[in-house]
């Protein structure tokens, strides 16, 4: 992966219908997008090959899950990294809070999946983040450390890993972390990587923010030194996605953020 580029991962979740997908692929294909932003489209399994045929090669394709093995017991109904590579997938999204919470995926299982996907030649996007109760109790750092420790136990080579700080309390709420809260968590993650993996990895692994990212708050978030891009959920199938991809930081943007123009999305959020 290129050193500290800007990334936008569109999590299409359970998008359904080929017509909807055609519309989104057209939206991405015909509009002018920042060449300095790598765009990764996360798509449900049934549509992966269809989307790969529609999108230009500049767009990377991600599956929204995979299993930790390719054969044997417990693989019925699962999808392996080998299958994904066969249909043009280069990335896989793992550890999303939807799966950790609703399907009880443990830190250990997420780490095992990530390690196996890497061993089979896929790049991985791994989500980490704390619940509202964890943050309220002051346990954000310890929760992140536990999740990262599980990954480090299984991952031997971090070169093709991307991490997403995804505060669980922000998902589906329409509320985003304040920029300094996002930076605090991502800064902790980068320092943890330096202490427990290597300084080189800490400086090169992309760290993304995910959680109610919109065209309104993306610039303020992107100004944070450890935000290397976004995982976009609800707005990944809307026109907002184009503006998020084109989050260009310049002096004019900096002045707008400093003046408070982009702060309104955070006003109804408890400032932890």
Short description:
The chain is α/β, with parallel strands linked by helices and 272 residues long.
Model description:
With 272 residues, the protein is of the alpha/beta class. The protein has a single domain (6-255), classed as TIM Barrel (Alpha-Beta Barrel), CATH 3.20.20. Helix content is 40%, strand content 15%. The protein has twelve helices and eight strands. The chain has helices at 18-30, 48-54, 81-86, 97-102, 107-119, 132-136, 140-154, 179-196, 199-204, 218-222, 240-245, 251-258; strands at 6-11, 37-43, 60-63, 91-94, 123-128, 161-165, 207-210, 229-232. It has an eight-stranded parallel β-barrel, surrounded by four helices. Helix 2 (48-54) links the parallel strand 2 and strand 3. Helix 7 (140-154) runs parallel beside helix 8. The longest helix is centred in the C-terminal third of the chain and has 18 residues, at 179-196. The relative contact order is 0.15. This is Triosephosphate isomerase. Belongs to the triosephosphate isomerase family.
């Amino acid at each position: 992966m290129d050193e500290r580029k800007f990334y936008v991962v569109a999590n299409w979740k359970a998008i359904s219908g080929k017509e909807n997908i055609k519309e989104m692929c057209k939206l991405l294909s015909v509009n002018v997008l920042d060449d300095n932003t790598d765009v990764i489209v996360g798509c449900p399994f049934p549509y992966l090959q269809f989307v790969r045929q529609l999108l230009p090669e500049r767009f990377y394709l991600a599956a929204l899950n995979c299993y930790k093995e390719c054969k044997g017991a417990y693989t019925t109904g699962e999808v392996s990294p080998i299958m994904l590579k066969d249909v043009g997938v280069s990335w896989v999204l793992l550890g999303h809070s939807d799966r950790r919470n609703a399907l009880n995926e443990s830190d250990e299982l997420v780490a095992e999946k990530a390690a196996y996907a890497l061993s089979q030649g896929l790049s991985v996007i791994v989500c980490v983040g704390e619940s509202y109760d964890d943050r309220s109790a002051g346990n954000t750092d310890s929760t992140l450390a536990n999740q990262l420790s599980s990954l480090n136990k299984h991952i031997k080579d971090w070169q093709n890993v991307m991490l997403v700080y995804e505060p669980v309390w922000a998902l589906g709420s329409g509320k985003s972390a304040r920029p300094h809260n996002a930076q605090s968590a991502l800064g902790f993650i980068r320092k943890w990587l330096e202490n427990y993996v290597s300084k080189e990895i800490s400086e090169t692994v992309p760290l993304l923010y995910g959680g109610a990212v919109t065209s309104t708050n993306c610039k303020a978030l992107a100004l944070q030194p450890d935000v290397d891009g976004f995982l976009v959920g609800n707005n990944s199938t809307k026109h907002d996605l184009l503006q998020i991809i084109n989050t260009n930081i310049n002096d004019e943007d900096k002045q707008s953020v400093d003046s408070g123009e982009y702060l309104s999305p955070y006003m109804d959020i408890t400032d932890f």
